[in-house]
Amino acid sequence: MQAQATGTYRDCLRRRRLKSKYATPSGTITTLTSGTDAEVVKSATGVYYVDITTTQHGVYRTEWTGTGTVRAADGVEFTVDAPTVAL
């Protein structure tokens, strides 16, 4: 299963880089940077996303951080539940 984490920054012309960080339920943290990592995709002006492959059940945490003259951060959590029906 995949989830998509989206960061929207309308003042993106002032930002040098956007960082996307996410943690898996087991605590593994991945950090990706716009302009460096191809996984950070610009879908429109000021709108970026990262696809997260969910291989574990539990809570995933995501965070977007902007750097430059205007700094900002935003995050979200989502839960992947175990299937209730055997497939």
Account of the 3D structure:
- The protein has one domain: Immunoglobulin-like (Sandwich), CATH 2.60.40.
- Strands 3-2-6-7 form a 4-stranded antiparallel beta sheet, with no helix packed on it. Strands 1-5-4 form a 3-stranded antiparallel beta sheet, with no helix packed on it.
- The chain has strands spanning 2-8, 15-23, 29-33, 41-44, 47-53, 58-68, 72-80.
- The radius of gyration is 14 Å and the shape is elongated.
- The chain contains no helices and 7 strands.
- It starts with a strand and ends in a 7-residue tail after the last strand.
- 0% of the residues lie in helices and 60% in strands.
- It has 87 residues and is an all-beta fold.
